[in-house]
Amino acid sequence: DAQKTDKQYDHCLKSRKDGITIGTFYYLAKRAGIDIGKREVTIPAFTPLVYDDLPYLLQRVCDNCQSDEEADMMLLGSLTAISSTIPNVYGQYDGKKVYPNLFTFIIAPASAGKGRLSLIRHLVQPIHARLREMNKLEWEQYYDMEAQYKQSRDPDVPKPGRPPHRMLIIPANSSSTALYQILHDNGGVGFMMETEGDTLANTLLTDHGNYSDGLRKAFHNEPLSYLRRANNEYVEVENPKLSTLLSGTPNQVRKLIPDAENGLFSRFMFYYLPLKPQWNNVFAKSSEASLDEEFAAIGKYWYDVYLRVSEFDHIHFFLTEQQETLFNDHFNTLHDEYLQRYGLGFVSAVRRMGLIVFRIAMSLSMSRCYELPDEKAEMICQDADLQIAMIMGDSLLEHAVKYYLTLPTTSDRSTQTYKQREEDKKRKVYQELPDTFQTKEAVEIGKQHGLSESTVKRWLKTPLFTSPSYGRYSKLQNDPMTQ
User: What distance in Å separates the CA atoms of residue 9 and residue 25, rounded to the nearest whole number?
Assistant: First the structure.
């Protein structure tokens, strides 16, 4: 009877005690041959409208992609890389001066194709190489001057100062002090790129490498400071302009951003790259040049644009009044929609997506520099760029939701009972368990999420698991714990 089943289903959802719960409902339904388990929700790729009027540089990047999702990934990666190379471009947002820098995390299972993201390095390699070559000459001069200083007996000869370490691409496994020092040496500018999210996540777990707070401040171009132990010198990066591009598996991103209350969650653009169960033609060619050669050529093109943009001390980017109205109306609607759907816990992601969209529009417009006739120290956003940025933002919010729903309790759910919080922990443990596992594996994963050994062992005896042999368990497929 549909009405009675609906009523019992509601009771199961609200159950906070042992006995008949929503888990039991799913279990019995499955035993009866009715599969009402989890359905994988796939988020569609960016709409074709995004690609109808891209700047030539970005269109050239996307033309080398084999699928819509790969094009999305490479577009996000390119925009993030570009955002690190235009530190003289700024705009006014919410009364503050902001810069184009973006934080991006591509989430994908192993072998899903996120390795292609490494090609993005070619876009900024000429700029990085130029800085390294300049720095090499500076250090050679320093060593010559230091040798002369040591040989000189004149007390009036000043000791030469050590030159800075100039670079654009910053290793993700740098310590917090090294990161801040590199940013200081480079006027606050840097691009952190890592195709294995574990590298950064593991660095953040160490005492010397925990700069999660620094990343949060850098996103808003807020000052970073540290004390250099060598000579007890206080160093401050007044206006950091750091862009970050990471990729990794779902487990790797959870190490970096374990819950929605972690401020990095709302500062990153997330994109889920699906694993397609098909073999790609590994010998397919879009041109005679290899992908490395093609992206190196695109990098040379961007280097020429970069030199032109660098001629100006400052370039002011701004929206027209009509664009501002469109922007505010759009995000006002999104704000109300997501507040109703997911509560206050997701509001920060919507609000920061507004800033991210504004920054995407900045990078898109600067990518058109060669397409614009005037050389002025200002840049009016083109309608096409604002439209592209907002369409991307709408899709990126859905990708953020997909990750948000896997995270533990957030502040707007702080009134949950102890039982509810424990269920949240069990849900995360369930997601990380393999289909078949041993007791000790479950206990170890449970400890990582705050569950005691006795709690895990009692939990393994519930209908959520079967035990084909002593000490071994299997999960029920399509179980509600994965919802």
Answer: 7
- Report helix, strand or coil for 158: coil
Cα(382)–Cα(104) distance, rounded to whole angstroms? Answer: 23
d(CA 262, CA 410): 9
Helix (H, G, I), strand (E, B) or coil at 395: helix
pLDDT level of residue 229 (50, 70, 90 thresholds): low
What's the DSSP call for residue 263? T
Q: What percent of the chain stands above pLDDT 90?
A: 46
3-state secondary structure of 304: helix
* Terminal CA-CA length for the chain: 25
Which residues are CB-neighbours of 340 under 8 A, at least 6 positions away?
none
Residue entry with tokens 């004149």: 154
Nearest C-alpha neighbor of 241 from the set 367, 130, 88 = 88
> How would you class 190 by CB atoms within 10 Å of its CB: exposed for 0-12, middle for 13-18, buried for 19 or more?
buried
Dist CA 117 CA 69 (whole Å): 12
Q: Hunting for tokens 């999305």 — which residue is that?
A: 72
pLDDT band at 371 (very low <50, low <70, confident <90, very high): low
Among all chains, which residue has been given the structure tokens 């007996």?
Answer: 153
Question: Longest C-alpha distance within the chain, in Å?
Answer: 101
* Residue recorded with tokens 């570009």: 82
CA distance 214 to 237: 11
What is the C-alpha to C-alpha distance for residues 423 and 345, in angstroms, rounded to an integer?
Answer: 18
Dist. CA 262–CA 51, nearest whole Å: 33
